[in-house]
Amino acid sequence: MPEQLTDKMKAFLNEVFPAVIALKRPNGSIQVIPVWFEYRDGYFWLNSATSRRWPQHLQKAGEVEMLLLDPKDMFRWLKVRGRLVETTTKGAAEHIDRLSLRYTGNPKYQSSQPGEQRITLKVEPVRVSPSWGSGE
Amino acid sequence: MGSRAIGAALSPPAQALLAQPFLAVIGTRRADGSVQMNPAWFEYRDGYVWVNSHTRRSWPKNVLRDKAISLLVLDRDDPDRWVRIDGRLVEASTVGAEEHIDRLSRLYTGNPFRALEPDEQRIMFKIEPVRIAGENI
Q1: How far apart are CA A36 and CA A81, in angstroms?
Q2: How high is the mean pLDDT of chain A?
Q3: pLDDT tens digit string along B51-79?
Q4: What angle do CA B65, B69, B71 make, to 5 degrees?
Q5: Cross-chain Cβ contact A32/B26 below 8 Å
Q6: Quick one: which H or E segment has residue B53?
Q7: Phi, psi of A124, rounded to the nearest 5 degrees
Q8: What kind and span of H or E run contains A101?
Q9: pTM for the full model?
Q10: Hey, which bits of A9-117 come out as E strands?
Q11: Chain B residues in contact with A100 (beta carbon < 8 A)
């Protein structure tokens, strides 16, 4: 079962800003990147193309650190340690359109590269810590 | 998302992005090798990235031990525009660090930095960019 989030956390995750994820490259160096996400049905859903490196690093690691940060307020954030529970190309093209709508207002993703295969990554929150302390 | 760029030099649009008071997310490595992320103020000046913290916090300890830092700066008005600097620590100093955090505070908030806590020792880091990546820069 994923970690249960409070209503305040859910409302925060409904705001539109990218998640920042941190991964380690094969040589051990750190990679910090912004990614589109949505929090739905208790999971974080990310999307990428199979040719990109970060989903490959994520699949290899099986877990990921995420920072959800209000870009306008450094004291509003949620840190999430997540476990990758599913990776699929099925429905991934529709999913990036859905994220495009959330982030750009355009229901059709505009930055597809020719021949690219989208991939959806389902991440289970294992540990969640908000900047505003517990009990809210 | 949009066009991607990777290299060792900062393009003029990347420099323009870094000149804004946007928050950075810094990634450091803990002693056990795991990754830690923290929001941070920063400034890009004279070809280096400057960040500032409190010596008792964990991320500056990571930087002192590991000498490496990854700094991501997001355009808060455009989620598809960002720059990432993977950098190397070239200098850590407590001298001038209180003036530096005050300078950053004025850049970001328009106000002087809060009063320091009794045990608070500020430290500033000079980071040399080694690898630049980003989108729409």
Answers
A1: 17
A2: 92
A3: 999 999 999 999 999 999 999 999 988 87
A4: 155
A5: yes
A6: strand B48-54
A7: -90, 125
A8: helix A92-104
A9: 0.91
A10: 19-24, 30-35, 37-40, 43-49, 63-69, 77-88
A11: none
